[in-house]
């Protein structure tokens, strides 16, 4: 497990940022848009046009995995969208759509004053698919039926499964005891299988409530409760 | 190790150049069009943003039965309003509303990344994605609220909702005192994104 899997409760990180802008530099808009476009065109989506040039799977899981794979010191050094820029450029290169040299060459032309505009051949089906994804999304809800192992008011102990490269279980909840306050309707899959971490296949999901003293002992603030949305693979019976 | 913390002087220029170069190459290779990125940005500027959440909150303030519907069945209640297609789209597939009250204060967080209900709140402000908020708010929400200028009485119960699977929560803030006879349209203007995330109160001007 890496530091970025367990940010909750980390001490001495200084005051919070209260920067209300979504983008703090103009270029951040472009990488955000590129990420949303790639998610919209991802080849795992149903009813996608079959003539799209982008033919890879790209989801939030890939973006998160990239950030979780970073050297933790680098993770804190780079701003949010800088991490995206690194992860997305790396993926586009590794999938063979462009080469690292092409990217460096074109970027250096921008630094020298700006290259001539490019033209492309992508058809209207690309922006049609993008709008379709934005409007209809990619729900993880599944048709698979599974009887939930837990019910509301059950006390559960959070497992401490081994993480290889990606998890949806915040580190500060591991080995803690909470109470199920809601069982989501149906079952939910995750974009990818996370190996020994345990998610991917459709399974029930719960909202689990933790009292602050269970999580933080004397370091917590009174009258505070934390609720997390947790896949069944992360829960065990509290003995 | 020391080299890790060396910042290059032209860091932002290099970032900008790389981002623009990447977009150009994706256009050139036919993966996206000249318009793709602007189409996406415009979608969040004009169709899916905090202006939708503000309308939902104002409706909840003026119509108690709608508020109860919203808390019981968030997607159903939102679908009953007149919004453009997309309220159950990207990052809005499974949204849930939670309501503040004199005795209860709700906040949203994503300690692992930045999950956020796009259709009602738009795109998350920088502070929500910054590691300092994600580290601290989950353990010391009152201290964090103070940094946002909110002093919460110690007997108020704080509820922190961490989006770690499919649910994207948002907060129905409390209606400010003295606005009981305001119209829905007037109330919409008071609701800020921060108030729907639980780090600000809605104030009567």
UniProtKB/TrEMBL annotation, chain A:
Belongs to the nitrile hydratase subunit beta family. Signal peptide: none annotated. Keywords: Lyase. InterPro entries: CN_hydtase_beta-like_N (IPR049054), CN_hydtase_beta_C (IPR042262), CN_hydtase_beta_dom_C (IPR024690), Elect_transpt_acc-like_dom_sf (IPR008990), Nitrile_hydratase_bsu (IPR003168). NHase catalyzes the hydration of various nitrile compounds to the corresponding amides. It catalyses: an aliphatic primary amide = an aliphatic nitrile + H2O. GO terms for molecular function: nitrile hydratase activity; transition metal ion binding. Transmembrane segments: none annotated. Coiled coil: none annotated. Residues 1-114 form the Nitrile hydratase beta subunit-like N-terminal domain. It comes from Marinobacter psychrophilus. Pfam families: NHase_beta_C, NHase_beta_N. Residues 140-236 form the Nitrile hydratase beta subunit domain. This is nitrile hydratase. It comes from the Bacteria. Its EC number is 4.2.1.84.
TrEMBL record, chain B:
Residues 15-200 form the Nitrile hydratase alpha/Thiocyanate hydrolase gamma domain. Belongs to the nitrile hydratase subunit alpha family. Its EC number is 4.2.1.84. Fe(3+) binds at residues 110, 113-115. This is nitrile hydratase. One of its GO terms (molecular function) is transition metal ion binding. Keywords: Iron, Lyase, Metal-binding. It catalyses: an aliphatic primary amide = an aliphatic nitrile + H2O. It is an enzyme of class 4 (lyase).
């Amino acid at each position: 497990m890496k530091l970025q899997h367990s940010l909750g409760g980390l001490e001495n990180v200084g005051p919070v940022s209260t920067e209300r802008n979504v983008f703090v530099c103009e270029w951040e808009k472009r990488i955000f848009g590129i990420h949303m476009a790639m998610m919209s065109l991802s080849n795992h989506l149903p009813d996608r046009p079959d003539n799209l040039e982008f033919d890879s799977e790209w989801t939030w899981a890939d973006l998160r995995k990239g950030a979780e794979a970073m050297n933790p010191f680098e993770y804190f050094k780079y701003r949010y969208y800088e991490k995206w820029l690194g992860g997305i450029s790396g993926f586009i290169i590794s999938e063979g759509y462009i080469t690292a040299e092409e990217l460096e060459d074109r970027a250096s032309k921008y630094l020298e004053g700006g290259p001539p505009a490019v033209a492309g051949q992508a058809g209207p089906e690309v922006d049609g698919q993008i709008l379709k994804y934005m409007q209809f999304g990619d729900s993880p809800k599944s048709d698979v039926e599974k009887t939930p192992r837990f019910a509301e008011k059950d006390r559960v102990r959070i497992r401490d499964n081994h993480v290889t490269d990606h998890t949806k279980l915040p580190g500060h909840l591991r080995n803690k005891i909470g109470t199920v306050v809601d069982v989501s309707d149906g079952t939910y899959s995750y974009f990818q299988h996370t190996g020994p971490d345990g998610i991917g296949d459709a399974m029930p999901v719960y909202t689990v409530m933790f009292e602050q003293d269970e999580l933080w002992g004397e370091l917590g603030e009174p009258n505070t409760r934390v609720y997390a949305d947790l896949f069944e693979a992360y829960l065990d019976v509290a003995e | 190790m020391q080299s890790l913390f060396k910042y290059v002087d032209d860091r932002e220029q290099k970032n900008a150049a790389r981002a623009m170069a990447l977009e150009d190459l994706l256009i050139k290779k036919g993966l996206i069009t000249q318009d793709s990125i602007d189409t996406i940005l415009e979608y969040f500027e004009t169709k899916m943003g905090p202006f939708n959440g503000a309308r939902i909150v104002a409706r909840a303030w003026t119509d108690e039965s709608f508020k109860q519907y919203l808390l019981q069945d968030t997607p159903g209640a939102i679908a009953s309003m007149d919004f453009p297609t997309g309220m159950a789209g990207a990052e809005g597939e499974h949204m849930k509303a939670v309501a503040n009250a004199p005795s209860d204060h709700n906040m949203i967080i994503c300690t692992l990344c930045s999950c956020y209900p796009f259709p009602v709140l738009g795109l998350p402000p920088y502070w929500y994605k910054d590691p300092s908020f994600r580290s601290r708010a989950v353990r010391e929400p009152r201290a964090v609220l103070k940094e946002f200028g909110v002093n919460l009485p110690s007997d108020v119960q704080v509820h922190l909702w961490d989006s770690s699977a499919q649910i994207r929560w948002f907060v129905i803030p409390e209606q400010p005192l003295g606005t009981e006879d305001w119209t829905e349209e007037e109330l919409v203007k008071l609701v800020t994104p921060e108030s729907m995330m639980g780090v600000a109160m809605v104030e009567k001007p």
